[in-house]
Amino acid sequence: MSGAIVGHGSAGHRPNRSTRIRRYSGRVRDSSDRWPRWVYGVGEEPDARFSLANERTFLAWIRTGLALIGAGVALIAVGTLSAEHEPAAALAAGLLIAGGIGCGVTGFVRWAGNERRLRLRAPLPASVMMPVLVAVLVSVGLTALFFALPGG
């Protein structure tokens, strides 16, 4: 009796995907149960691979934001060691922390917008935050380079 599911219907019967979901979770959830409703309440369910890729991109934005905030906090701690460089370190740390917060907000807004567009089968937009993030990192890098040079 190879491939049979014991205790589930007739011998050799394999439940279809929706039956497996129902048995696993107790009930099949529809899109109206999910949050945020303004995202999941429109269109039709996209291919799961696209939704999961969108979620991985969201998590990458979150990781980047956490790294920027961590770098800003570390720079504040290190900047207090040298009174002459403290203002520049505070400025760079502020830019990093603001960039990290921006990454978190952007990640959620982009995830929700992209998920909604996937459900509506609409084209995905370009990112506005990427050039802003590059400008923040270049500013912090140039500030660090200036103060790392002799006499800076």
Summarize the structure.
This protein has 152 residues and is mainly alpha-helical. The chain is built from five helices and no strands. It is 66% helix and 0% strand.
Give an overview of the whole structure.
- The chain is mostly helical and 152 residues long.
- The chain folds into 2 domains: 1-33, no CATH class; 47-148.
- It has 5 helices and no strands.
- It is elongated, with a radius of gyration of 24 Å.
- The termini are far apart.
- Residues 49-116 form the DUF202 domain.
- It holds the Pfam family DUF202.
- This is DUF202 domain-containing protein.
- InterPro entries: DUF202, IM_YidH-like.
Order of helices and strands: HHHHH
Shape: elongated
Mean pLDDT, all residues? 83
Structural class by SSE content: mainly alpha
Bin the helical content. 55-70%
- Structural domains: how many: 2
What's the Cα radius of gyration? 24 Å
Instruction: Let me know the number of strands.
Output: 0
CA-CA gap between termini: 78 Å
Main sheet attributes: strand count, strand direction, barrel closure:
none
Quaternary structure: single chain
- Helix segment count? 5
Question: What is the strand and helix layout of this fold?
Answer:
Blueprint: H1 17-25, H2 37-40, H3 48-79, H4 86-120, H5 129-148
Helix pairs in contact: 3-4, 4-5
Domain DUF202: 49-116
Transmembrane segments: 58-82, 88-112, 124-149
Pfam families: DUF202 (PF02656)
Characteristics of this structure?
single chain; 152 residues; mainly alpha; 2 domains; 5 helices; 66% helix; elongated; disordered N terminus
